[in-house]
Amino acid sequence: MGGIPVSLGPEVTRKMDVQSEVGPVCDIILAAKNVCLLTGAGISAESGIPTFRGEEGLWKTYRAEQLATFQAFIQDPKLVWEWYDWRRGIIASKEPNAGHKVLAEWEELFPHFTLITQNIDGLHQRAGSKNVIELHGNIWKHRCIDETTITENHDVPLKEIPPRCDKCGALLRPHVVWFGESLDGSILHKSFQLSSGCDVMFSIGTSAVVQPAASLPLSAAEAGAKVIEINPDPTPLTGSADFSFRAKSGEFLPILDKELKRQTKQKKG
Ligand code: OAD
């Protein structure tokens, strides 16, 4: 089989022999009864949505404590909402990429498949994924700070900044997890249960530094799952991963998907 060019880092492109490099990992994936994935901002990078860390990451330009904490919100809700309105505008103008689309198809490919994301952009759902566990919330949802009711809102730009609750008039906040806040206990519990019960765990496009999400692949590894990482850069997870592909997810996932489908067809035929 001929080589397929895969970008293996910001400047390096080399020919990847699909069968020798992706083949062994396909055998493991196809033998799995239960596949679990954790995605991060990197999976949406090729859609044009900025990541948080790295040279062009949001936290290079913006200070998290001024924009992504409850204290910051109470001090200046208008500023915080303007930042979220700006981010909603960026996301709304972008499309899911080839990586998101492969993962949406995998929901049908594997009998037990779990997609856990740290992303709040909703791009997995727009690509067609139906069951997405959102660890950090969703930028398209608002939450009343008094009543805690959650409503969907897709206005771009927002009609009112800061938006207020229709029922009680209190401030609405983005339904996302901010620094210093705990994740939803039941979502977290379910995520750890699923990751520690899988045979294969993917970690895709995440710097693997934000807890508790970063522990999900480790809990899978401890329970005996094979861990597969896809990221152009190494991360703290790399040393514990069974396979770590230095690649962009939007390029690598379609290659892996093609090989998985080829092998499945071959086994059936
Ligand atoms: P980060 O911005 O920390 O990391 C993004 C990762 O994606 C990096 O490791 C990049 O190397 C990688 N990456 C970049 N381009 C890629 C591509 N094309 N394909 C695959 N990987 C690529 O984002 P997260 O790990 O998601 O939390 O960050 C975790 C959390 O930190 C976020 O959910 C957010 C942030 O603060 C909250 O807002 C609560």
Q: How big a fraction of the residues is strand?
A: 15-25%
Which fold name corresponds to the CATH topology of the largest domain?
Rossmann fold
Helix content: 25-40%
What does the main sheet amount to?
6 strands, parallel
Radius of gyration: 19 Å
Question: What is the count of β-strands?
Answer: 11
- C-alpha termini separation: 19 Å
Low-confidence stretches: 1-16
Strand order of the largest sheet: 5-4-3-9-10-11
Average pLDDT confidence is 92
CATH architecture term of the largest domain: 3-Layer(aba) Sandwich
User: Which structural class do you get from the secondary structure elements?
Assistant: alpha/beta
How many domains, in number, for the residues?
2
CATH class category name of the largest domain? Alpha Beta
Principal-axes geometry comes out as elongated
